[in-house]
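Whether sequence alone determines local backbone shape is best considered at the level of individual chains. Part of our work consisted of pairing the sequence of a single chain with a tokenised description of its backbone. This step matters because it turns folding into a mapping between discrete strings. For completeness, the protein is quoted in full, as a sequence line and a line of structure tokens:

_____
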Amino acid sequence: MSTRTLIRGGLVVTAADEIHADVLVEDGRVAALAAHGTPAAESWTADRVIDATGRYVIPGGVDAHTHMELPFGGTFASDTFETGTRAAAWGGTTTIVDFAVQTVGRPLREGLDAWYAKADGNCAVDYAFHMILSDVDASSLKEMDHLVEEGVTSFKLFMAYPGVFYSDDGQILRAMQRSSANGGLIMMHAENGIAIDVLVEQALARGETDPRHHGEVRKVLLEAEATHRAIQLARVAGAPLYVVHVSAEEAVAELAAARDKGLPVFGETCPQYLFLSTDNLAEPDFEGAKYVCSTPLRPREHQAALWRGLRTNDLQVVSTDHCPFCFTGQKDLGRGDFSKIPNGLPGVENRMDLLHQAVVDGHLSRRRWIEIACATPARMFGLYPKKGTIAPGSDADIVVYDPHATQTLSAATHHMNVDYSAYEGRTVTGRVETVLSRGETVIDNRTYTGRAGHGVYTPRSTCQYLD
């Protein structure tokens, strides 16, 4: 049976436009938009009318970097696909792209199937997968072609974590050459892990074991050097490159220099690098462990370069790298040895609100907010215009957003399955009110009405940002 929802009276904000318009949703898709009060809009009838007066009507967020149930450091990320996608919905994110992991020595297909099984029937919002390449060899290179055909069109490689996910320059070059041929996009964790391991060993030998030393050994220059090296390898391979979780001014400069040459090089940053700093890593009584992630938080003075990069489009995307570990029972595995603290922060629920705060603070325009959080991640990873915009034919992934409401971020009120908030006590302006996922209400006026299993796997085309 056909169902129609009418969202009336709001300011529709996309990456391209801001227009006072009514939005008609039919059978899970956007059927039409018309300026509010026009005869076309007045003629529409619907089973349900949502009054968006005084609200923004925005596309559902696309978080292109999450790690639900990720095994890391002898434990697992504390959000399941069920809890993590429910929290995403609460935060106005209606699509996540998570990372399936290849086990060293095993086929890509085996890792991908394991992640299909974790997510299937458990997600509140739609999802897709990237593939982590842990073992680049002749057979995994061949498998990359099959995955691209199947809609898994991006592959993450690590210059960090020797002995776990690390690939050497030769392996990286081979994977880039393969992606150049098959249309896949290489995503790079750009830190010089071999050098970092030396600095970790030396710091621990000096008795420097506290969380703040995690940031000190993972030096800015080793992020910048790896970013530069990744760019040069991509140039040799003739492949596009997407650098994940860029945290440092010097790394932004490497991306900007490459883009000034017209190279297809892209960068992502995350809210933690825009809003948190090494001050958090240095919090006493081991509290700094809550903020251990890689790339690490940087001194506050790096934030200006990240905001500037987002404004100039030297950074194109803000994702979360959502990878939560509870402070009690997980983060505290690293008491007495910072290198044993599981790396990752919770954030999938906070991204849209923090970036709206950046609009309020004057860092970003409203349209740029939607561009970096919705439209560009959808285009970068082959989901546009199904996701990332509000246009006829798009999935009705729509958020009614109150730009005037204030809220205080806290573990006491968030919906992520983790015992702390990285933004505890921070007051932000703006709040999600109602969320539609493919036309179905998952958050109804601040009440969760979604369900595990509503979210479906969404295959992707190749990168549309190169077009």
In short: Residues 290 and 327 are 6 Å apart (CA to CA).
